[in-house]
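Study this chain:
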Amino acid sequence: MNYQWYPGHMTKAKRMMQENIKLIDLMIELVDARIPLSSRNPDIDGLAGNKARMILLNKADLADAAYNKKWSEYFKGKGYHVVEINSRSGAGMKAIQETVREACREKIERDRKRGIVNRPVRAMVAGIPNVGKSTFINTFAGKACTKTGNKPGVTKGKQWIRLNKSLELLDTPGILWPKFEDQAVGMRLAFIGSMNDDILNIEELAMDLIEFLKKNYPDALEKRFGQEIWGNEGKEGKGTLEILENICQIRHCFLKGEAPDIARAASMVMDDFRSGKLGRITLEFP
């Protein structure tokens, strides 16, 4: 499967971000903690220029806790200010205000020397589709400021949100980049739901995910679906299609004539991964 998705509105969104970059002090980039590198749009580094930088490892509750720590250290080593968060539950949010102050310390000190006090830090919130920017802003603000949704493309335009006297946020639409040089990056983005599922082969996607889990998290499928997932012969040498067929038996997913409904089982695997029902899983390692 060839992974690519760059609808026209993303070009417009990128242009809008370029036009507004001069208004901000800080670039806050949300990444998905399960794929912290693959969920970083390389265009954002070019857009941010010499602005202060902050990375939020969002959906940290869905990722392997040990790797969250390793990724935090990785990005800190590159000079970013980093916070692990779960924007739905609010976990980690209390650390953000102080981290913003730390990231913008030079700017705040410069203002103070000029006699400018209480001028809010202005931050752009950027990231790929479905990474949770709007949910983050609403949770951080303590009220519904933006539209949210569990599919890519909900935020269409820019929106300024004043959180308090010291911080204003500019919400921006999620943008991908025109071409994935590495198709493994596209596959990981498809795994977490940052592409439109309608353009994907979900059966093939689920088989790729099962292949990864067999190698890196072998107990995840068994804990979710039971030992029967391997059939009578055990897990050794089990093919991904055979595993999907066994899931059809376990979950009673059949077409007319008792044929296994592979498409339904594949969707079930993808939904269980995306919602965290397969456990805390990280898809790439620093």
